[in-house]
Amino acid sequence: MSTRTLAVVTAGLSTPSSTRLLADRLTAATVDALRRRGDDATVEVVDLREHARALADHLVTGFPSGGLRAALDTVTGADGVIAVTPVFSASYSGLFKTFFDVLDPDALSGRPVLMGATAGTARHSLVLEHAMRPLFAYLRAVVVPTAVFAASEDWADGDGGSLVPRVERAAGELADLVAGRPTSARPADPFADFVPFDQLLGDQA
User: Which long-range contacts (CB under 8 A, 24 or more apart) does 17-21 make?
Assistant: First the structure.
């Protein structure tokens, strides 16, 4: 049995937070799915609310403080990432974006990512496709097909039971990707071995 590491990035601002609640649901379902595939899992949660000041400092100094440095290392070293944000002004939160802005541009290359978002109304559900998916595509992450959005009405039954099918499907997709790759393996850089353009021109002469 292999042990896989999951980094859970949550950008909720309140306590309790529906964003953190959704992140916890996705995490539990992914751990269960990995165990069904014969793998164990360790989970490390990065609560961005705790790093808000350090993120602002990092933007102007270029250097992360100790706690933020550990959070960045957690995400960089994980076999899979679960990233959940609240929706503000029809997009991900500034805190969420700032964290991925200061993350090394290659840190998520080839890394499986499961996306989630929360908001007061289902009208914001397209944030997953028009904002979050392009962000992780730019970072060259491997985003699972199913993303999970939770509006206020999804928690109306008290335990979020209406989310269960989507959560389990998304968790299964992430588990498939995480279990199918070597633990903590880094993908090969497709641009590491290239022929300079002037050499190509020389070969044609």
Answer: 17/86, 18/86, 18/118, 18/150, 18/152, 18/155, 19/84, 19/85, 19/86, 19/116, 19/118, 20/47, 20/84, 21/155, 21/160
Q: What's the chain's Rg over C-alpha atoms?
A: 18
For residue 53, the number of C-alpha atoms closer than 13 Å in the C-beta half-sphere is: 4
Q: What is the pLDDT of residues 16-67, one digit of tens each?
A: 889 999 999 999 999 999 999 999 999 999 999 999 999 999 999 989 988 9
The pTM of the full predicted model, rounded to 2 decimals, is 0.85
Amino acid identity for residue 82 in this structure: I
What is the Cα–Cα distance from 24 to 10, expressed in whole angstroms?
9
Instruction: State how many domains the chain has.
Output: 1
DSSP assignment of 39-75, as one string?
-EEEEEEEEGGGGHHHHHHHHHHS---HHHHHHHHHH
| The residue type at 169 | R
Give the range of the structural domain holding residue 114, as residue numbers without chain letter: 3-204
| Domain CATH number, residue 74 | 3.40.50.360
Amino acid at 22: L
Tokens of 45: 């949660």
